[in-house]
Structures are given as structure tokens and as C-alpha cells.
Design brief:
331 residues; binds beta-D-mannopyranose; mainly beta; five-stranded antiparallel sheet; Tachylectin-2, Chain A; single chain; five-stranded mixed sheet
Length: 331
């Protein structure tokens, strides 16, 4: 079995693959796991991030409110399935190294490093860029400096320092519904100054599901084969953008090196709750839980910009699928 680094998670939310399912990932039978109206003030709850916390789980949720303002709320769960989401939005406090600026926030990721949980999100600061904050308890949140200049989205940190530096993936963008998007990698010694920017992947005309733009999804998963990175890809259909997701493997010691990249999507919007909603045809992953004992991976993804879905897979099958249809070998 391919080894996932990190802790065992015996209480990972899980269902076995349904009989007859021919895909590498399969959906939770109770999807959507979080409905759009889980709190009284929400228009929609999607593109959200969860992590193991205490005996259960905690997370930061994108809760667009009924004014359709994009906000972040904390939440807790005993089992990763049943969530209690705070009705009040997160009020960031200024950290010693910080900036206090919140016009809007969306698409959070949560990454545990050393002693705390880092939150990265698309932060409104004269346009979208990558906000950074940390928390110890999901009650108090301390905002740090933005990582980059506008315009940028999908800032995703690696779960440990590499070569003594923090590492983050991001996707430079524009002010609107960006019609382009490549994934880059940046490094920082102090989480304030980011540099050594390296290009990782571009969209590909040859693989239409990821031909318009690509953006990193959950926190990269450390495995014996490399960093497993799920990322979304966008098809430009005659009816608008279609967001699916696939995966690639990056080198463990130098994650700017792509080892393999799957040509096929792993999950594309096909169910009613992925195809119908405020923005139809969107499957947008922002978090994954892993169990190193069994190789199980549970992925949380936004569905149609309205609700949150959960999908499952085994690391062995996912990496075998990336290697079987490796774009790097087919060029
Ligand atoms: C992207 C982001 C996501 C959203 C997606 C589809 O640009 O804004 O938050 O899920 O578009 O609308």
C-alpha cells in the first residue's frame, strides 16, 4: 500500500465504494453533507475546509449570507458529517505580524503546521488576494499579512516546512471571473515575505476538463509517492464554465517538480446538487481528511456554489489512476 504520512484517523467519515461503481472516487450517499441553509443567515455553504480537531473535527466554512456577501464562519463536528456552524462570522483579530482587512472572504483552506491551524482564503483587499490567519481553537482567529499582491486566488499551504521554508500554491488571477489560471508555488521563511515563485502547471487544451484554468484544492497530502495534490480544472462550455477536479503528484523534497498528472478528471459535476444551484456545474474541492492506517481519503467539495459534498477514495487507486493516464507521459 502507498503510505500516507501523518496520523491515523480511525473516525474518518467513510462509506465503502458502492457495488458496481467504476470510478476511483465515489460520493457520500447522504450528500449534500452540508445543506445551504444549515444556519439561518446563509444563502449557501460551500467551498469549505475541515480538519481533525480534538476528538472530532473543526472547519472554516464559506457561508455566503442573504445579502450574498461572502463570509467565513467556524464550525465543529463530532463525526465529519453532522456540523454545527457558528451563526456569527469570524471576526479576525490583528496578529503581531498582521493586517486587519476584510472586505470579503471565500474559498478557505485550513492547514495544521507545528502548533496551530493556518487559514488561507481569498481575501478582498482592493481585489481578491490570499489572506492568511491562524487559530488554535477555531474561536479566536489572528490575521497576518496577505501573502501576495492582488489578484490571486486558491492559496493552499503545504502541511510542513520543506527545506526550512513554508510553501504555498496559488493561482494568480484577475478582478473578475478569470478566464485563465496557472498554479504557482511560492516559499517563505516567516509567512510574511513570499518569494522564489515557480510555475507548476498550466491548463491544457488536450484535456478539455482542465483547458481553461486550474487551481489547487485541498492541502497537499504527503505520501510515499510524492505530494498528492487535488486540483480543480475548468472546461469552457457553450453554457459557461464547468468545474471538475483531478490530481497530480509533486516531488516530496522539491514540490515545484511535477512527477505525474492525471489526464482524466476524478470527479465532475453529474448529480443534481452539483449541476443545479447558484452556479451550475461546479465541483470545487477545498479539504481532504486522510487515514494513514487504511489509505482512506475523504474529500469535501463545494457543489454548484450552493452546498457541500463529500467524496471518498483510496490513495492506492487514486495514484494508480494518475499514473495510468499521466499527461506527462503522453505529451
Ligand atoms: C471560482 C471561485 C469559486 C467558485 C467558482 C465557480 O472563480 O469564485 O469560489 O466556486 O468560481 O463559480
Amino acid at each position: 500500500m502507498i503510505q500516507i504520512a501523518g496520523k491515523e484517523l480511525p473516525n474518518i467519515p467513510w462509506e465503502e465504494k458502492p457495488q458496481g461503481c467504476q470510478n476511483v472516487l465515489w460520493r457520500y450517499s447522504g450528500n449534500p453533507v452540508i445543506p445551504r441553509d444549515a444556519i439561518p443567515t446563509s444563502n449557501s455553504i460551500f467551498n469549505s475546509a475541515v480538519v481533525p480537531f480534538g476528538d472530532g473535527f473543526a472547519g472554516v466554512f464559506r457561508c455566503d449570507n442573504k445579502a450574498r456577501q461572502m463570509r467565513l464562519n467556524a464550525g465543529f463536528s463530532p463525526d465529519g458529517i453532522h456540523w454545527t456552524i457558528d451563526h456569527d462570522t469570524i471576526k479576525f483579530k490583528n496578529s503581531p505580524e498582521g493586517l486587519e482587512h476584510f472586505d470579503y472572504g471565500y474559498d478557505p483552506r485550513v492547514c495544521f503546521i507545528d502548533d496551530r491551524y493556518y487559514i488561507t482564503w481569498c481575501n478582498g483587499y482592493h481585489g481578491p488576494t490570499i489572506g492568511v490567519a491562524y487559530t488554535f481553537d477555531f474561536k479566536e482567529f489572528y490575521q497576518m499579512e496577505n501573502a501576495f499582491l492582488p489578484y490571486n486566488r486558491n492559496g493552499v499551504m503545504f502541511p510542513r516546512k520543506i527545506g526550512g521554508e513554508f510553501v504555498m500554491l496559488s493561482r494568480p488571477s484577475d478582478t473578475g471571473h478569470t478566464a485563465f489560471g496557472d498554479i504557482y508555488l511560492s516559499r517563505s521563511r516567516d509567512l510574511v515575505y513570499w518569494g522564489k515563485h515557480r510555475h507548476i502547471i498550466s491548463p491544457s487544451e488536450e484535456y478539455p476538463w482542465q483547458s481553461r484554468k486550474v487551481g489547487a484544492g485541498p492541502i497537499p497530502i504527503e505520501t510515499s509517492e510524492g505530494w498528492l495534490v487535488f486540483y480543480h480544472g475548468v472546461l469552457n462550455s457553450c453554457n459557461g464554465f464547468v468545474y471538475s477536479f483531478g490530481a497530480m503528484l509533486l516531488d516530496l523534497e522539491d514540490p515545484s517538480k511535477v512527477l505525474a498528472r492525471g489526464g482524466n478528471y476524478l470527479l465532475s459535476p453529474q448529480t443534481l446538487y452539483e449541476c443545479v444551484g447558484d452556479v451550475p456545474n461546479v465541483a470545487f474541492p477545498c479539504a481532504a481528511l486522510t487515514d494513514s492506517a487504511t489509505g482512506r481519503i475523504a474529500i469535501y467539495y463545494g457543489c454548484a456554489d450552493s452546498v457541500t459534498g463529500l467524496a471518498f477514495g483510496y490513495v492506492d487507486e487514486i495514484i494508480a489512476e494518475i499514473r495510468k493516464n499521466d499527461m506527462l507521459k503522453q505529451i
